[in-house]
Design goal:
- The chain is α/β, with parallel strands linked by helices.
- The chain contains nine helices and ten strands.
- It has one domain: Rossmann fold (3-Layer(aba) Sandwich), CATH 3.40.50.
- The strands form two sheets. A six-stranded mixed beta sheet has the order 6-7-8-3-9-10, sandwiched between helices. A four-stranded antiparallel beta sheet has the order 2-1-4-5, with helices on one face.
- The protein is globular and about 50 Å long.
- The site of magnesium ion has 3 residues, from helix 1.
Length: 238
């Protein structure tokens, strides 16, 4: 039996008559990066929203680190050590970058000085330290993605869900992002990574699952996925 930090079993999410996620099952083994790919509208973000409790699912189970967290609230799931970033960044525009990083550690027993040092170190890891006193609204789209990653670093979760972290991010910022994901993996973190950037996701992922019209049509190593006829058809058509 694998040691899974996340087990998704038969997950279903419907929007009216549309079955956006249809009996999806997969595991994220501890310490590994599982990539999730699929064309626009395949159900990737919806699946992530069910995993971290933003959406109430209509069937199936979500088990985090051995705890059944199906349809628990997002803060309850986060408190088990699940962090995430969003396809459309959700940062606080009228707060400084440092203040943005304080949000996930509200209520911490650490001193303000200690937390500020930590926040500065996290911003430095994504090259945003020079902008630490600026407001979130002053960041470019790509920098907002980096700020979200810095917020994940600050929160220090065991399982990290990344929804399109590379979208709209230029190659040099992408390199920073990839380096930080690799470093977090070395530190023992586990990931569910959604991306249309196949080069980056193939490079980073230990395993890939392919979602198509709400169903997983293939799972395996990068090599097996790349040569799977069902995947090629889903991406390129007949
Ligand atoms: N809140 C919602 N209400 C109704 N339908 C929704 C909602 N969210 C998503 N959907 C539908 O569910 C399906 C899956 O959408 P989802 O956003 O999960 O796709 P995705 O794989 O993340 O796509 P993309 O690659 O474009 O981000 C789509 O058909 C979408 O229109
Ligand atoms: Mg999406």
């Amino acid at each position: 039996m694998t040691d899974a930090i996340l087990s998704v079993d038969g997950l279903v999410k419907r929007f009216g008559g549309l079955v956006a996620v249809n009996e999806v099952s997969f595991d994220v083994p501890r310490g590994l990066i599982v990539g999730l790919i699929g064309i626009n509208g395949a159900g990737k973000t919806t699946l992530m929203n069910c995993v971290n409790g933003i959406y109430h699912s209509d069937g199936g189970r979500v088990v985090v680190d051995g705890h059944d967290m199906t349809n628990h609230k997002p803060h309850e799931i986060a408190s088990l050590g699940v962090g995430r970033t969003f396809q459309i960044p959700r940062i606080f525009h009228r707060m400084t970058l440092i203040e943005n990083l304080m949000v996930p550690v509200l209520g911490s027993e650490k001193s303000d000085a200690e937390l500020t040092d930590m926040a500065e170190a996290c911003l430095d890891r994504v090259d945003l330290y020079p902008l630490r006193g600026n407001n979130g609204e002053e960041l470019s789209g790509g920098q907002q993605k980096l700020l979200e990653l810095a917020r994940v670093l600050m929160f220090d979760p065991a399982l990290i869900l990344l929804d399109e972290p590379f979208a709209g991010v230029n190659p040099s910022l992408c390199r920073i992002m990839i380096q930080q994901i690799e470093k977090m993996k070395q530190d023992g973190k586990s990931f569910l990574l959604v991306s249309h950037d196949l080069t980056s996701i193939y490079r980073l992922s230990d395993q890939i699952s392919v979602l198509n019209q709400g169903e997983i049509i293939a799972s395996g190593t990068v090599e097996t996925i790349q040569s799977d006829p069902a995947v090629i058809e889903a991406y390129l058509g007949n």
